[in-house]
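Q: Start with the shorter request: fold the first protein.
A: Done. Sequence, then structure:
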Amino acid sequence: MKDKIITKATDLFLKLGFKSVTMDDIAAEMGISKKTIYKYFGNKEVLIEETVETMHQTIDVAIDNILSQQYNPIRENFEIRKMFKTLFQAADTSPLYQLKKHYPEIHAKVMCKEMEDCSTFLRQNILKGIALGLYREDLNIETVTRFYYTLVFQVNENTISEKETQELELAILEYHTRAIATEKGLAELEKHL
């Protein structure tokens, strides 16, 4: 039952927003009592934390699946972007924006994990791109990594509309790739734009 509640809560939070969905809304959607929800989650914040953690795990599995396909690093970035677009297509408002605005403590925890994971992935992606001749060899990997995730997270945290967020993320991905790509990498980028 706990997993079913998390699944339904995730769906509602993404569609309607973390702030606007109540425990009553979740109970009504599931045809259960609010008491049943409170049996598993002490309050709404606990439910949101567990929902966000479940989303994080889902994203990790999806990214691992993409990485296992052994795409070149530029395609890998576009495949990950596509995965995020699909995952959050039901959301009208950026989930990170909502968390930052309404649940700053949960947002802070999420950002620590996300920045660490993002940095690790980007470093690996850049090293792979350099090895394949798609990215320049003279890159300062730490600086490039910080630039990219700073841009992405600033957009996600400060843009209300999920549609606008996704459009800006595509622009950031193109900007990032053009900044670090070799001629071979630019040719690969053009295939994906």
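Q: Next, the second protein, separately.
A: Sequence, then structure:
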Amino acid sequence: MEPYRFHPGTTPLLVSCPHVGTHIPPALAARMTAEAQELADTDWHIERLYDFARDLGASMLVATHSRYVIDLNRPPDGSVLYANANNTELCPTTRFDLKPVYRDGEAPGEAEIKTRVDRYWRPYHDRLVAELQRLKARFGYALLFDAHSIASMVPRFHPTKLWDLNLGSADGTSAAKALIEPVAKACRSANPYTAAIDGRFKGGHITRAYGRPAEGVHAIQLELSQASYMEEAPPYRWRDDLADGIRPTLRRLIETMLAFRPR
């Protein structure tokens, strides 16, 4: 299976979905615990939730493999994203609840991690870079929206219930202020949903590495509470009644990005 699906668009916007994948090669799955194979930490249904973005002309890049194979939103050298915080790894060995991903003695070593970087991580990022370059060449600038979701309660990362909309811009450095401010305003005004701007989730590797507003590339990450659109317990069902409530807000965020014009 290819490491991603790509859908080209007609606007300056690329929507990246690096944690939506659920595929694990069978030989690798056999080394994982039964609990890990539930794929609890997947960004469930994100491609479906944002399917309207393609109708608005956005390009979309969608990972096919589980983050337990490799985390596409981590640096390829495995360096820490959040200092003085509990971080997950490039090739995770524990779930968010700290239960093991692998059976005893089956965790990947350095050589295997490098192989996974070459086989899965690099193709996704090569495609991402190529698309940003194409958009910049065509429009003079490029916009990147990194779409994520997470369970509403993850004590490993935050002691209380997370906000519904967790917007990250690397503390205002990954995009122009003229883009961040209206997107943040749209989050804060999205009643009855709660919002945090550059809180616990300031943006992962993708936002930080590719958001270079001085070079014409503006990146924003949204970590969305899964309680806003789905059931958080297995089998992680999509909920139309919940999704229909949050999708107008998500559409407003995408439309706000599309309305941006750099000075």
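Q: Describe the second briefly.
A: The first strand starts at residue 4 and ends at 7. The helical segments are 26-29, 46-49, 51-55, 110-139, 177-188, 205-210, 240-259.
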